[in-house]
């Protein structure tokens, strides 16, 4: 399974890019999964639901399943947050795992960079970055620069970088 991160400062458009890029890659015959890091407390469960009650009662993991999907919720219960590598072990292998966030982890990454945000490049001096995606010129980088709005060009770069070509069906 190939792994590629999409990272950038808050407000750079990581999620917007992700939801535009996934269908482009899937239309090219690739199986794609995603993993996202959240910097804040979040919950995929709802108070009052059986699964929520199980977690509130102290269960470390709760798996909910139906004919359409399943979800596994894991409570850290005071344990440290796992790394992206540890979390990847729970993913079913696909052609490409796109990771949103985890900007300090060692997997290859594309930086989504908008100079208008007034933030520095994350990719400077970090060899895990393989390209910069921007809506403006970025003279400070030596990495390949791809127009943030050219989804086909970004998908081309990803396929070329990882030699990802769909299997014959």
UniProtKB/TrEMBL annotation:
Lineage: Bacteria, Pseudomonadati, Pseudomonadota, Alphaproteobacteria, Rhodospirillales
Name of encoding gene: mobB
Source species: Dongia soli
SUPFAM superfamilies found in the cross-reference section: P-loop containing nucleoside triphosphate hydrolases
Any Pfam family matching the protein: MobB
InterPro entries hit by this protein: MGD_biosynthesis_adapter, MobB_dom, P-loop_NTPase
Domain annotation Molybdopterin-guanine dinucleotide biosynthesis protein B (MobB): ranges: 3-135
Protein name, per record: Molybdopterin-guanine dinucleotide biosynthesis protein B
């Amino acid at each position: 399974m190939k792994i590629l991160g999409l990272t950038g400062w808050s407000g750079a458009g990581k999620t917007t890019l992700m939801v535009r890029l996934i269908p482009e890659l899937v239309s090219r015959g690739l199986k794609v999964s995603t993993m996202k890091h959240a910097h804040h407390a979040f919950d995929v469960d709802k108070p009052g639901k059986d699964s929520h009650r199980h977690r509130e009662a102290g269960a470390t993991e709760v798996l909910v399943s139906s004919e359409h999907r399943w979800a596994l919720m894991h409570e850290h219960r005071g344990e440290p947050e796992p790394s992206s590598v540890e979390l990847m072990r729970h993913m079913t292998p696909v052609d490409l795992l796109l990771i949103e966030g985890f900007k300090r982890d060692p997997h290859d990454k594309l930086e989504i960079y908008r100079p208008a945000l007034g933030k520095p490049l994350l990719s400077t001096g970090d060899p895990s970055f393989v390209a910069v995606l921007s809506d403006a010129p970025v003279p400070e980088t030596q990495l390949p620069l791809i127009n943030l709005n050219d989804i086909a060009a970004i998908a081309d770069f990803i396929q070329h970088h990882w030699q990802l070509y769909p299997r014959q069906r």
